[in-house]
Amino acid sequence: MFRYRVTFRKEGPVRWIGHLDVVRAFERALRRAALPLCYSEGFNPRPRMVFALPLPVGVLGCRELMDLYLRTPVSPEAVKARLSDAFPEGLYAGMVRRIPRNAPALMAVVNRSTYRIEGVIDCGISPEAVAAAVQAVLDAGEIKITRYGKGKVKEHDIRPGIFSFEAKCTSGRVSGVMTVKAGQQGNVRPEEVIGAFIRFGGFCTDPLDFMYYRTGLFTVTADRMISLG
Predict the structure, then answer these.
(1) Residues 144, 117, 7, 69: what is their CA dihedral angle, to the nearest 10 degrees?
(2) What are 10's strand-pairing partners?
(3) Is 53 within 8 Å of 59 (Cβ atoms)?
(4) pTM of the prediction?
(5) Contact criterion met (CB below 8 Å) for 211 and 115
(6) Secondary structure string (H, E, C) spanning the chain
(7) For residue range 185-229, what is the model confidence (pLDDT) as tens digits?
(8) Residue 51's pLDDT band (boundaries 50, 70, 90)?
(9) Hey, CA dihedral for 187, 199, 14, 89, is it positive or negative?
(10) CA–CA distances in Å: residue 102 to residues 2, 19, 26, 98, 193
């Protein structure tokens, strides 16, 4: 069995489909690509692939990651070419490289995400007001948000999971970058950070009016942030 790490982009209207539909799109593309796939066992065998981290609906993925398992070796260039021909519009194959079969599982090691944000605030925003709101987010001792899921309402403090946040304003257009906690524990969503930014700044807009781009997935080892792609 041979393991490959595939980098891909998720762009355009495809950003509005959920993770399970992305998985199905990959399964169909992999079959069309006629790669020597490894399959899971059981009554409904599926191609063996593991995604690093589901991308939230509405967020564009600039450097998403997936591990793919093949029965026989194929050159990374050929894997990329076949996937590029088979992907539907909105999914694009990037770098493909072969990795050791026993490398740590992607989902187990990813713990940082980077995002780029863009939005327009019409109500007389200024560079000074944006800078003050960013500083208020970074200076906050805690930032409580509410999440809904499976019939339950839970309150979370996302401040410990915000590692960096920068934003600037040019002619009413706000752009910025952030690094936040990712993974199964303590993860932070970019729209939650922008929600706090809007609230602290007193701005008249909604986090859903912003565009979000996930630009990288990382792991932290000995205080170093290392790209997994």
Answers:
(1) 20
(2) 61, 91
(3) no
(4) 0.91
(5) no
(6) CEEEEEEEEECHHHHHCCHHHHHHHHHHHHHHCCCCECECCCCCCCECEEECCCCCCCCEEEEEEEEEEECCCCCHHHHHHHHHHHCCCCEEEEEEEEECCCCCCHHHHCCEEEEEEEEECCCCCCHHHHHHHHHHHHHCCCCEEEEEECCEEEEEECHHHEEEEEEEEECCEEEEEEEEECCCCCCCCHHHHHHHHHHHHCCCCCHHHCEEEEEEEEEEECCEEEECC
(7) 889 999 999 999 999 999 988 999 999 999 999 999 878 999 987
(8) very high
(9) negative
(10) 10, 25, 23, 12, 36
Q: Mark 29-65 as b/e (b = at least 16 C-beta within 10 Å).
A: bbeebebebbeeeeeeeebbbebbbebeeebbbbbbb
Tokens of 69: 């398992």
pLDDT exceeding 90 applies to what percent of the chain? 82
CA distances from 118 to 55, 169, 188, 212 (A): 18, 10, 18, 7
